[in-house]
Structures are given as structure tokens and as C-alpha cells.
Amino acid sequence: MIGREYIPQIYFSDVFQVKAETVDEYGAFDVALVNDLPLFVDPFLLFDSEDDKYKELHTSIIRYLVFLRDRACADDLTEGNITHWLLFKEVKQNWLGFSKTGNRGTGLGRTFANALARNLKSVFKNFGTETLTSSSHIEKLSLLNGGVGRDHLSDFTTNLTLGFLLDYTQKFAKTHLRPDQYRRFRLDKVVFDYDTRRWKSAYFDLPFFEGDFVLLTPMDMLTRDESWINQGDLINQFTQIRKSLPDSALRSQVDEHFYSQIDNFSSAEEQKEAVLRTVEKYPEVLDYYILKKEENAAAAHTLSDLKVTETHLQFVENVKELIGGHLSKTPFYEVGDSYDECHQRIAYLKHVIEDNDGYRLFYLKGVPIKRESDLQTLFRLTWFRTKYDVNSEVNNGRGPVDYKVSRGRKDACLVEFKLASNSGLKRNLAHQVNVYVKANETSKSIKVILYFSDAEREKVQKVVKELGLEKCPDIVLIDASPETKASGSKATSSH
Q1: pLDDT per residue rounded down to tens, the chain (495 residues)
Q2: Which domain holds residue 382?
Q3: How far apart are CA 109 and CA 88, in angstroms?
Q4: In this predicted model, what pLDDT tens digit does every residue of 36-48 receive, in sequence order?
Q5: How far apart (Å, rounded) are the C-alpha atoms in residues 401 and 448?
């Protein structure tokens, strides 16, 4: 059993032996060096910042995009130029983003580069010359279905602010870390030279961890899930924007184009696509939407502050308490066969949640977590000490599974973490995992289901009974409801 003095090496402050308060006072987010956390840079926070450095950063982003627009309109985006100007490596060293396991995302590939080049020459050819809004905004490029999604925009923004982030991290390292904790790295594409039209490299002294550097990011640049200007919000506000267009001719054209695509029986997805096609036909609508977002800029900071604070509570403070206050006092971190290890760890996790008040750590302001991706990230953060490979969203040809814990091809176990509230739970239990097991060539799989109320418990028990799985040891139900927990016998049963 791990002793009470054991300190998990998960977060930046743990690994580099600095106080978490020091990282917080510097203004950086204390990232987990085990798994990406669902945060990213929101360029709108740079645009509306009172900090001149941030404003200059936003200006530099727009300048580069205007340069790309000019090159696109001049048919100067050859394959070679696209490679140099639009292809960027993923900045995985900031440990932020949409990756469920580790810090490897999809990055910015040729599809993104070609889509951006095409859009800048067509629908966004006026980028940088807008007169309605007080500034151009990079987020505008992700408002349509054109191959530039929110994850691409996040990666692109991080790359275009890389020089600032590297310098920010270097200053922290030289001030707060020992010399043996950082090393000199040569980084490509740090500064763009508009005279030579080439990206330049530079050297930085950066925190060193497991063969790579670590990048810190200021909290006041970050938000969670969606930037202030985003496609979902555009779609939600489309009716209001359409009705308030001051140009009556434009308003009439937009109405006619939109209503020609839908009827009273159109689904929500069909209406969404109709909105996006209409906005692509009349991109002026985007400027009216962005103007409204500029007029409500103060709310962007309030919302992002709230989201970052909640993310810190959920994935840093709660995880530290779950590990240090509960799991480290059990045999949770003893290592065995991958299948046995999975079962043992899940059993200890179940015990902590049901009998040791660990259920509280799956709530935020009294509300239980609602997304399975959050549940899976929390699970991954606790699994930091194992000699096994822990990979999420493993896709071996039949679709992804939450986690595959393995040591070689013959020693593997599939694990799925589900919320009882999932509307597709019965279908998943009946079909999904059996298909995954066959594809991954292992007969070992565990399904863990978390429920937060008596109603959810009854729903799961009904599903399990209907499928004839009452006695299946590989279906583990965990009671995270706030009601008084039952005796220890409950914690050892599967449902």
C-alpha cells in the first residue's frame, strides 16, 4: 500500500517541485503532465484584453491571416508555400486540448491547410477589411463547415502565439526552476519574417520532462470547450441576427434563402445545415454576429474565468483529493495483470466513491458531471502510475473504445466508462463492447457505469436485467448519488 506521504507526480508543480501557489501567482495553469485538459487559447480574450502584450498578439495573428489572404487571392499559395505557411505541428507540449489520452491530437494537416487557403480566396476574401466590426477575428474562419473546425482553430491559434508562450515559459523556468530542470531547445516557426516571407527558428530554455519540453499558458488566455465566437452560438442566435439585420434588402435575401431549404418537418440538423449554407451565401451575416459578440465582450472574460476555475476544480483540485486523500491510502496503485489490475483499480475507485465520500469529487457546484469525456479524463488522471500502456479511443477498425490497458498484444483489457444518463447505454452494453473485443483480439473487457440518483440506478438495473447480465462480473455499477451510502457489502457487489 502506498504511504500517506506519497505525492503523485501528475501536475507541473508536482513534477518540477514548485509550489502550486507559485504557478498560480505567475498566472499559469498548472497542467497535468499525464493527459491533456479540455482548455485552449481563446483569441477573443487577446483582442479584448487590457494587456497591451495580448492586444499586440491578436494584431499579429490578424496580420498573418491577411498575409495569407493576399497570397490566396494572388494565386500564390503553391504546394510549397502552403507547406511552409499553413502546415504546423501540433503544439502538444502545452498539455491542453481535445486529446483524451496523453497529449497527442490530430494537429494541422493538409486538409486544414487546403481548406483555409480555399476559404480565404472565396467566402473570406474580405478578411482584414471588415468595416462593421472593430477588428477582424480568426474565429470567423471556423464559423462555416469548410474543414476548419474548432480543434484546428485552437491548434492554429496556439502556433501563431507560440513565440509568446515560449518566452513566457522560459521566464518562469529561469526564475523558479533549478538549472537541471530546464534545457535549451531549438524551435521552428517561432517568428515570421515578412520581408523574406519565411518562418524563423529560435532557441529557448524550457522545462524538461520525459525527453521533451513543457509549455505553460496564462490562465487569462484560456477558455473551455468553445471560444466566445463559435459556430454553435452563431446557429443559436441566427434567428435573432436575421431579424435584426438593418439592411432590409439583405434581410429579405437571407430569409428567402433560409426558408427555401426547410419546412415544418425539418429536423434540427437540417435547420442547422440550412443556417450554415445561408451564411456561406451571405457572409455579411457573420460580421453582424461578430459585432454583437464585440458589444458583449465583458461577458467573454467573465465566462472564461468561470470555465477555467471550474476546470481547475474538477481536474486539478478534485483529482488531487481523490488520489492523495483516498486512492493512495488503498492498494489502488499495486500492479498486476492488466485485466486484474483494471478490476482491482475499479473496485478501489468504487469503494472510495461509495464508502469514503469520494462521490463528492464527481460534482461541480452540486451538479454531477454530465459528459462521459470528463469522466474518462478523470479516470485517466488517476491511472498515472502503471507499467502498462493506457490508451483511450483505441480504434482498431470497428470504432473507438474508451480505454485499452495493455502490455503487448496478448495481455490487454478494454475498459468503458459510461454515465447511466447516456441514452444509448442499452445499445452499448448489448453490442458495442463485444465488437470491440473481437477487433482488439482480447476476451477481457469491463464496463463501468456511474449513476447519480435512484432513478438512474433503476434505469441501469432494468437494462442489465433485460440483457441477462445481472451476474456478469465485468459490469460494474458505481453509486455516486449524494444519499447516505449503504454498508460495505454494497461496495463489493457489481450492481
Answers
A1: 444 444 568 899 999 999 999 999 999 999 999 888 999 999 999 999 999 999 999 999 999 999 999 999 998 888 899 989 998 888 999 999 855 444 455 557 788 888 888 888 888 888 999 999 999 999 998 898 766 767 778 889 999 999 999 999 999 999 999 999 999 999 999 999 999 999 999 999 999 999 999 999 999 999 998 899 999 999 999 999 999 999 999 999 999 999 999 999 999 999 999 999 999 999 999 999 999 999 999 999 999 999 999 999 999 998 888 888 888 788 777 655 678 778 888 888 899 999 888 888 889 888 898 888 888 888 778 776 554 455 554 444 434 445 566 555 566 777 888 999 998 888 888 875 565 556 555 667 888 999 999 999 999 999 999 888 888 888 999 999 986 454 443 444 444
A2: 334-491
A3: 8
A4: 899 999 999 999 9
A5: 13
**Within a domain: 237:** yes
Residues 203 and 248 in one domain: no
Within-domain flag for 2: no
* CA dist., res. 413 & res. 437, Å (int): 9
The position carrying cell 441514452 is 423
Q: Which of 296, 207, 205, 228 is nearest to 28 (CA)?
A: 207
Which amino acid appears at position 334 of this protein? E
Please, are residues 25 and 35 in contact by the beta-carbon 8 Å criterion? no
Residue 402's contacts (CB-CB under 8 Å, 6 or more residues apart) are 100, 372, 376, 392, 393, 415, 416, 417
Any idea which residue has 429579405 for its cell? 252
Do 380 and 484 lie in a common domain?
A: yes
For residues 118 and 484, give the distance between their C-alpha atoms in angstroms, rounded to a whole number.
Answer: 59
For residue 454, give every residue at least 6 positions away whose Cβ sits within 8 Å of its Cβ, in sequence order, or none. 481, 483
Instruction: Say yes or no: 209 and 237 in one domain.
Output: no
What CA–CA distance (Å, rounded) separates 320 from 324? 6
Per the structure, the count of domains in the chain is 3
Instruction: Specify the pTM.
Output: 0.83
111 and 68 assigned to the same domain: yes
Q: Are residues 410 and 477 in the same domain?
A: yes
Does residue 97 contact residue 40 with C-beta atoms inside 8 Å? yes
Q: For CA atoms 220, 221, 226, 228, give the dihedral sign.
A: positive
Which pLDDT does position 337 carry in this prediction?
A: 62
* CATH (domain of 475): 3.40.580
Q: What distances in angstroms separate CA 36 from CA 91, 194, 307, one per listed residue?
A: 11, 34, 16
Query: Residues with Cβ < 8 Å from 375, sequence gap 6 or more?
Result: 362, 369, 417, 418, 419, 450
Angle between helices 338-355 and 372-382 (to 10 degrees): 110
